[in-house]
Amino acid sequence: MRLVVTGREGQVVRSLMERAYTRRDFDVVALGRPELDLAKPETIAPALTAARPDLVVSAAAYTAVDQAEDEPDLAFSVNSTGAGHVAAAAARIGAPVIHLSTDYVFNGSGEGAYTEDDEPAPRSVYGASKLAGEHAVAKANPRHLILRTAWVYSPFGRNFVKTMLKLAVDRDEIAVVADQWGNPTSAFDVADAILHSAATLHGNMGFASFGVYHLAGTGETNWSGFARHILVTSQALGGPYTAVKDISTSDYPTKAQRPANSRLSTAKFTSVFGRTAPDWRMSMKEVVRRLLTEKRRGR
Ligand SMILES: NC(=O)C1=CN([C@@H]2O[C@H](COP(=O)(O)OP(=O)(O)OC[C@H]3O[C@@H](n4cnc5c(N)ncnc54)[C@H](OP(=O)(O)O)[C@@H]3O)[C@@H](O)[C@H]2O)C=CC1
Ligand SMILES: Cc1cn([C@H]2C[C@H](O)[C@@H](COP(=O)(O)OP(=O)(O)O[C@H]3O[C@@H](C)C(=O)[C@@H](O)[C@H]3O)O2)c(=O)[nH]c1=O
């Protein structure tokens, strides 16, 4: 089965390439700029058509949450218009699309974990552009899976785990918000879920499983708890450690507002696809171990 994925250097794209490398049943092709530029709609259909996908994975996005507040037009053109064109091109080729979205579509005032039936109401330009992207994808290609994930980390690109390990080297203490709750998710677990759901869709194309799903690491924490666990794990593996101080959102002003609660219920994905992402602490340990090993090897 040939998967064509948008983006080349993103966390999820690189994790997908790595996970598919050892599998005979998947051939993954990554398309990035300049041949596929989500901000240039005219590049999208030709690049996707030439790559001959059985299924398209729409993983590229404008992900700079604070910067998006200053560049709303670009964020919407990439995350909404561009995503819509990807889904439309896939439909014309006859391919389903798996599109990635975010917990930041919710406003965070809810109490428990959000389900797919809860009403999104984004607080940020990034969240609003991703919600508009969900609508554009669903309209352009009825054969879609929209996977909302959260707090993604990996050995690749920019993410919270890498930031904390870097800050720990020369800070005596890191102050981190303790009043925003969610589910840290390894990009490798997202990649595994994409491969699993792609195989399910391919094996049973008439199966009514298209729609919106939540897919995140099992277990919840806040950013401060996440930071503390990263650093304790790093210390246990011989890496950098520093203390973490709990602060509140008002002590850490940012351009974009983030939800106080963006926990995602993954029950629907589990019940339809028969799979649950591992506990976030287990997956995080593997990523920290790999980052420390790569650092020791000078990579
Ligand atoms: N990171 C997170 O915490 C979360 C991410 N998500 C969603 O998951 C998906 C994957 O995220 P993640 O892997 O972390 O993203 P990254 O930020 O790691 O990578 C984004 C990718 O998108 C590419 N890209 C950006 N703009 C364009 C463009 N105009 N045309 C083509 N490609 C472009 C980037 O290319 P280049 O390398 O050239 O810049 C990069 O390869 C996204 O849809 C994101 O919204 C959802 C929840 C959490
Ligand atoms: C670096 C740092 C961040 N923070 C806070 C700011 C913010 O509230 C929270 C997370 O910060 P970051 O900016 O690293 O993460 P952020 O860019 O908000 O991460 C989001 O990215 C997008 C793409 C998503 O889709 C989301 O699911 C989510 O993962 O931690 C601290 O309190 N102290 C710190 O030293």
UniProtKB/TrEMBL annotation:
Name recorded for this polypeptide: dTDP-4-dehydrorhamnose reductase
Pfam families: RmlD_sub_bind
Boundaries of every RmlD-like substrate binding domain copy: 1-291
Family: Belongs to the dTDP-4-dehydrorhamnose reductase family.
Cofactor: Mg(2+)
The keyword Oxidoreductase appears for this protein: yes
Keywords: NADP, Oxidoreductase
Known EC number: 1.1.1.133
Catalytic activity: dTDP-beta-L-rhamnose + NADP(+) = dTDP-4-dehydro-beta-L-rhamnose + NADPH + H(+)
Organism per entry: Mesorhizobium escarrei
Taxonomic superkingdom: Bacteria
GO MF, one example: dTDP-4-dehydrorhamnose reductase activity
